[in-house]
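dumping these here so i dont lose them again. two proteins, back to back, each one seq then structure tokens. dont judge the mess
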Amino acid sequence: MAEFTRTERVDWEGLPLALREAVAEQVGPPAKVETIVEGRRTPLVATFTTRSGDRLFVKAAPDYGTRAGEQLARELAIAPYVTAIAPELLYAVKAGGWRLAAFEWVDGTRANYMIDSPDIPKVLQTLADLDRLQVPPDVPLIWFERRWSSYAPAGRELTRLAGPALLHTDINPTNLRIGPTATLVDWAAASRGARFVNPADFVICLIASGHPPRDAEAIVSDLPAWRDADPLDIDYYARTVATAWLHAFWNLTNPWAKAVMHAAQQWAMHRHDQT
């Protein structure tokens, strides 16, 4: 489930001095830190360039008591298990009541999900690779069905969304960097749940990018996570997403939030009309 809650942002100089000093000791002092505008969940999202010219992607958030801190801790916990499709975590620094994560820099462009985009096959391969990843049970991920407990119109059926599979849950174009492969970034909302959720989320993104619902489903039809799913489970997810996002995104003006809200309604009606 994509979320559009924004966090108050800070720049490099706004971080606690103790954290900046600890980063300088472990990583080296920065030659330049450029704040990245995209990114809703984390107080600092930036490009960090060392004096030797190396570029890193960094995130920083308070260590305790904030949602942003919990999400960054989750990214740190999942990082060792997703390096096949995600940037490698190079440094993790804690000081001054904050933590900072420094990831390898990934060259590439934002994914294009439009009709006939050459990026789509690369994204499908990344989703297939994601489906094969295994994460130990002690890694503190969110149980996906619990995220919907306040929204689901038929809460007794939430078990349809449960399972052990690793879910990214925010497969929007900004979170896929396209180069030779599609690299999946921003694991702040990583969850455990039903396998079909990853391709189902991509279906909604494809519809939001202009694909008719039937064509969007055809694009993911060869993915085992989709192919092996019970259609009634997918129907339930479509209904749940459409209902929840209509409520959660009603007053938002973010263009992508509006696009996926409309896409979820289209998808739910498509699933309904097929029954």
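---- next one ----
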Amino acid sequence: MLTEEIMTQEIDKGDAEKCHEDCNAKLFYSDAAKYWENVPATVNGMLGGFGFISHIDIDGSEAFLKTLFTLENPPDKNYAVDCGSGIGRITKNLLVKHFKHVDLVEQNSKFLNTAKKSLSSCSTRIGEYYPLGLQDFCAAPRKYDVIWCQWVLGHLRDDDLVDFFTKCMNGLKENGVLVVKENVTRSDYVEFDTEDSSITRPYDNFKSLFKKAHLECIREQKQLRMPGILYPVFMFALRPSKTLLAHLALQTTDTSSI
């Protein structure tokens, strides 16, 4: 959910664990899947009735992505993956313009079918379509230069999100980057949306989860020009910390010795 509405339940930091227990009791993932089954496979549907912000969003994302290509050790432009791709809005308007190949991950079959039609003109640039929720997606080792996650991570509970981040790091090539673009609350509270079964996290909560997953935030930026009724949106560029890099290197060594 992009907007801050009355149906959102505020949950104190100290009650975060209870929140996720409650989410589980409410069949967190299946409730979200049911919600999206009733959403039209259109840009307006993907953006909760705010389809008119799509170009603003894409412009901000493109500006942020271009800054990543100016890093001292920039990602290559060979392979990206669009996580929670929906109908392929971000793939079509952003990722295929900068990468030779793009995979899409989306659990809703209706959205994936629409994406295939929408991306038919650039089908040679599309790799795999993965019909999975992110809690079940495991990136192939060292496949991606950029992993793009936008307006989807609120559908993962904290423990699954940390696990997802760890699997993403394993899926990045050398100099690869994980991009997280998500809503952020204006308060210090985690907010649970009872309509679409999603969580909106405070800024500090994201930073805490990055740290827990041993990620280093190398660049961040707030999305500009969004309507005031919407949540603030932040973009984070993440790479594995030195600790995680050492662990991944050890895993590679152990595997190669078998």
